[in-house]
Amino acid sequence: MPIPGLRASLSASLLVAACLSAPAALAATYVPEAGYVPDEKTAVAIAEAVLIPVYGKATIESEKPLTATLEDGRWVVNGYLPRGWVGGTAHVVIDKRTGQILEMIHGK
Fold first, then answer.
1. What is the pLDDT along the chain (108 residues), one digit of tens a residue?
2. CA pseudo-torsion sign 25, 26, 27, 28
3. 40-106: CATH class
4. In the chain, where are the structural domains located?
C-alpha cells in the first residue's frame, strides 16, 4: 500500500539535493583560457542575441555596425548613430570570462 505523501516528499528531497550540489558542479566547469567571449565578433553576436528580443530587430539592424571594445575584462558593445542624427543607441556590457550580461540599456 502506498504511503501518502511519500512521492511528493521524495521529489522535494531530490530537488533540494540537486540544488545544493549544483554550486559544486558549476565550480568544476571548464572555462576557456580566453574566456567564453574571446573576441569582438563573439561579443557583438551575444549583444545582438540579447538586444533583438527586447528592442526589436529593426531597431538593432538600424544601429549596425555594432562595435565592441575590451575594457578591464569586459566587452562594451555599442550601436552606431550616424553623425548629425539625434537619438540613442544600444549599449551592452559583457564579462569576457563568463559571458554574463552586466549591463543592457538603450539610449533615447
1. 555 554 544 444 444 455 555 555 556 688 899 999 999 999 999 999 999 999 999 999 999 999 999 999 999 999 999 888 888 999 999 999 999 999 999 988
2. positive
3. alpha beta
4. 40-106
